[in-house]
Amino acid sequence: MSTPAAAPLAAAEILQILRQRWQASYDLQLIVRRGRLYLQVMWGYLEQQSFPMTAEQYGAKLEELAANLNGLGVAGQVRHWLSTTKDKPRLGKAMTLPLELPEGRASEFLL
């Protein structure tokens, strides 16, 4: 059963998509560059010995990220991109999704 595109994202859903697609719990980051907001899938992942977070810290970060994405109104974009992108995180090269923010949300977030 698929999730409606407009449904809020949960941290558990993000983690499930990452593990199904790439068999790893990749680090995700929201970044602002030149007045635009992007979601990046980094090359580091929880299962690496050198990963700088514990499982609890990673889970808390995903919870916060999911709340931010839902608040920005981009859950459907992120869900679709993570589920369909042909790219794969590679060492030294993050995957980047330029987020299309609904009117008004960008100015709230990018202040």
Distance between the termini: 38 Å
**Strand arrangement, major sheet:** 1-2-3
Can you tell me the CATH superfamily? Protein of unknown function DUF3067
Query: Count of helical segments?
Result: 4
Mean pLDDT: 90
CATH architecture: 2-Layer Sandwich
CATH top level class name? Alpha Beta
Instruction: Profile the largest sheet.
Output: 3 strands, antiparallel
Question: Which stretches are poorly predicted, pLDDT < 50 over at least 5 residues?
Answer: none
Principal-axis shape equals: globular
Assess the beta-strand content as a share of residues: 15-25%
Structural class by SSE content: alpha+beta
Total domain modules: 1
Let me know the number of strands.
3
- The ordered H/E elements are HEEHHEH
CATH topology: HIT family, subunit A
- Radius of gyration computed on alpha carbons: 14 Å
What share of the residues lie within helices?
40-55%
